[in-house]
Design brief:
Layout lengths: L1 E7 L4 H16 L4 E6 L18 E6 L6 E5 L3 H8 L5 E5 L8 E4 L12 E5 L7 H10 L6 H9 L9 E8 L11 E8 L3 H14 L4 E8 L2 E4 L3 E9 L2 H18 L2 E7 L3 E3 L5
Parallel strand pairs: 1-5, 1-6, 2-5, 6-7
Antiparallel strand pairs: 2-3, 3-4, 8-12, 9-11, 9-13, 10-12, 13-14
């Protein structure tokens, strides 16, 4: 699922909503769209970020063909995106200043609390949007995947009728190896552009060629991943549990060995690229 943030750079609520409506209408021509709205005024002044749990509600509406809305006290934007990722092609996030996904800014007011992800456009209103360029750049960015979205994808496999097992692995950022270690604040991952994606696809194909294995999904985040957040997922659809378990274990081992990803670790005391560490 591709995620696009829309935030107010000073144009005001009416202009922001007209942009959101236009963006959702155009994206819905290409697939199902989820909309996540966050109102910072209900968060007791807390700076809203994707990894934060808000004091108020995050509400989300499902696409132009959806007829319901849901809200959850204490739900994070990440939680809402995970929920939408199972059956939406796009998500539009409104009102979050700090987002690792691409965003557009409505208005040009100076704001030091800028979005963490790339700004695709700064505009005054919907007439300024260049949709072909916007969609191309949005779809070139890293998508939002969750364990739920990958499991949902393999369940939709044409081979699902022959499947008796789904096995998964989730890797996450570990704060410490032992009590005496300096706490890891976050990891930062970079990939060897082009090569990493090719190796990942080749690895999936090789694992799917095994007897009894029907579908394999591998996903590894890039960029900054905070303490406690998920980094990597392996999902295997198989005829029986034995081949599912074996393939999950081999999948994560080979991903770490064969896919060129570079990791920087930032602790409370130091930062270093792991491949440079003696």
């Amino acid at each position: 699922m591709h995620v696009l943030g829309v935030r107010d750079g000073g144009a005001g609520g009416d202009a922001l909503e007209r942009v959101v409506d236009r963006v959702v209408d155009r994206l819905s021509e290409r697939g199902r769209v989820g909309v996540v709205r966050y109102d910072a005024t209900i968060a007791d002044g807390t700076h809203a970020g994707e990894s934060l749990t808000f004091g108020g509600d995050v509400t989300y509406d499902l696409g132009v063909d959806g007829d319901w809305a849901a809200s959850g006290t204490g739900m994070s934007v990440g939680d809402a995106l995970d929920s939408l990722s199972t059956d939406c092609k796009y998500a539009v996030v409104v009102g979050v200043r700090s987002l690792r996904h691409p965003s557009i800014v409505v208005g040009e007011a100076v704001d030091d609390r800028i979005t963490e992800g790339p700004v695709l456009a700064t505009i005054d209103g919907p007439a300024d949007l260049e949709f072909d360029d916007l969609i191309a750049r949005l779809e070139a960015a890293e998508p939002h995947e969750s364990l739920q979205s990958l499991v949902a994808r393999v369940k939709r496999s044409p081979s699902a009728d022959r499947a008796g097992a789904i096995a998964t692995f989730t890797g996450r950022v570990r704060a410490k190896d032992s009590d005496d270690d300096a706490r890891t604040e976050h990891l930062e991952f970079e990939k060897y552009e082009g090569v990493a994606d090719e190796r990942m696809a080749a690895l999936e194909a090789d694992l799917e060629a095994r007897d009894g294995v029907l579908e394999v999904e591998l996903y590894h985040r890039t960029g900054v991943v905070a303490d406690g957040e998920d980094i990597v997922f392996v999902v295997v659809l198989a005829g029986h549990r034995a081949e599912a378990f074996r393939t999950v274990e081999d999948g994560i081992d080979r991903l770490k060995d064969e896919v060129p990803l570079f990791k920087k670790e930032v602790t409370a005391e130091d930062e270093f690229w792991v491949h440079d560490r003696p």
